Amino acid sequence: MKKQEIEELRELIEFLKQHGVAEYEADRGDTKIRLKFNPQESAPAGLSELARLLKAAPAAAASPVASAAGASASETAVDPESGLHFVKSPIVGTFYGSPSPGASAFVAPGDHVEKGQVICIVEAMKLMNEIESDASGEIVRCLVTNGQAIEFGQPLFTIRPV
Amino acid sequence: MFRKVLVANRGEIAMRILNACRELGIRTVAIYSEADRNALHVRFADEAICIGPPRASDSYLNVPAVISAAEIADVEAIHPGYGLLSENANFAEVCRASNIKFIGPPPEVTRLMGEKEKARQAMKSAKVPILPGSDGILTTADEASEWAKQVGYPVILKAKAGGGGRGMRIVRDPEDLPKLFHAAFTEAANAFGNGELYMEKFIENPRHIEFQVLADEHGNVASLFERECSIQRRHQKLIEEAPSLQVTPKLREELGRMLCLCLKDIGYQNAGTVEFLMDASRQLYFIEMNTRIQVEHPVTEAVTGVDMVKAQLRVAAGERLDAILPPKLEIRGHSIECRINAEHPHRFTPSAGKITAFNVPGGNGIRVDTAMHAEGVIPPYYDSLIAKLITHGVDRAEAIAKMERALGQFIVQGIDTSIPLHQAIFQDEAFRAGEFDTGFMERFLAARAEAERLPA
User: Do residues A110 and A121 share a domain?
Assistant: First the structure.
C-alpha cells in the first residue's frame, strides 16, 4: 500500500473506533477490505448505524479504502481460519437467506449441510434461484447479508468440510 | 440524461462508452468475466460486477446475467457496444421488459434489418439501389438463365445452405450457365445435403462503402457520410477511412437523402451503418445494415466533429437531432484507422499473453482507442483487436503521413501485433494512390509471399 493510502486507512480506523463500529467491510472491483475490532474496545454498532455514520462522514473516508490497490486482502487471507470451503454464487443477483421474508433462514452457523442441500436463494430477474451447497460439512459463517447484491463467484458461506 | 448506464461489453469499446458517459456526468457500471478482472474498463468504471466465467457465452453473452447485473446496480440504460449482444433483438426486448433503456434501435427494427430479404425490400421501397438477385430458389438451369438475363452478367450462384465458398459458382458467360449451375448444385448437395441455389449479381473487385446514420426518437434521421473499408482480409476489416475518394459530393448527397427517407419510414432510432458494394462504374448496391455503433466510428467522428457515442446516449435520453448535431454537417479533412490486432503480422496466428512494453503514439491528429497497457494480459477467449490507431489530416496524404509516423512509434512487446503488416500496407503504391478494392489484401499478401520466395 502506498504511504498516503496507509494514512487514509489509519484515519478510517480511528473514525470507526471513535463511533464504536465493530466490523467494517468494503468490496469494490479488485479490492476488498475487512476490519474487525476487538469487542472490548468498542461498543458494537449495527449495520444501520454504520450506514448513518458513513453518510455523515466526508466522502473521502469511504473511497481510500476502496481504492487501496493491490490489497492482499483476498478472501482466504482476510479470513483467519484456513482450510475452509467457500460456497460461491454461480449467478449475479440478490441474496436472500430465507425462503421468504420473515421465514427462518435456510441454514445457520453450526448447522450440518449435505452437498446438494439448498442453503440460500439468489434472485435474478424476478426468479428465485435456489443455491445448493457444493460441499458437505458444517456452516461456519454467512459472508453476506439479506438483500445484498451478489456478483458471479462471490463467496456466500464458509463450510468446514467433513 | 441518464443517471447510471451499464456497459454491456469489454475491451476498447467498453472504454469508449465509459469515457463518453463520464464526460456526460453519467455514472458507469462495468460488467466483466473472470478473465477480465483486471481489465481497464473494470478499473475505470464507477462500479463493476463480475457476471461469469471467461467464456463469452457464459458471461458477456449471458442475457440473464447481464440483466441481473443491471438490476442489482439499478441502472437506467444499457449500452451494448458492438458485437456481443448489440444486434440481439431478444436482448433488446428483455431490456424493454425489464424497464431498462437499450441504447440502440427498437427490437422490431433490429429484427427487420437482421432479415436480409426484408432489409432489401425496405431499401428497395425507398429507391435505395440493392444488389440484384433472384427472388428465392432457382429450381432449374433454365430458370437461372432467365434470372441472369434480368440481373445482368456476371452473376454468382450461391448455395442457400452454404458457406465457406462452397456451392458457389461465378458465371460470366451465358453459355456456361447450365453446366456451372449443375456443378454448384452437386457441390452444395454433397457438402451441405441441400443443393438449393439462389443468384446474385456478381461485382468484380467491389469496394466496400458504408454510410453512417443517426436517428433520434422523434422521426429525424441524418447521414454522417461514408467510410471506405475495402482493405479486408477474409471479410475482417483492417483499415478504414473517411471520406471515400470514390464517392462524389452528388452521390453522397443523393444517397444520404434516400437513406434518411428509408430509415425514417421504418422507424429507425439511434446509430446505424448501411453497407454497400461499389462496382467499377461507381454504382452502389445495398448489401446489409448494422444496427449498432461500429468499430470504425472514430474516422467519422474525426471528419464530422460529432461524438458518435455521446450522440447515442443523448438520442436514447430523448434529445432531438438538431440539438445534438451541428446545423450544417460537413466533411473536414481525411481520417484513416488501422485496427491493431494481437496476431502475427505474417502468419495471422492469434497472440495471447502479457504485454511487456506498450508505447502509444501521440501528437497532433493522432488518436488511439485501446484497453491495453504495459503489464496488460491478452486473454485467449475474445477477439484479437487490442487498439485502434486513427489519424486525421487536412487531406489523405497528410492522414497517411501521420499514420506512418504513428505506426513507427507504436511499440508493443511481449505479443505479436499487426503493426508491421499495417506499415507494409502503407508503403504500398496502390494503397497510397487509393487504388484498391476488397481484393487488395489477397493480392498484397500473394505478392509479399512471392517476393519472399524469390532468391535475394
Answer: yes
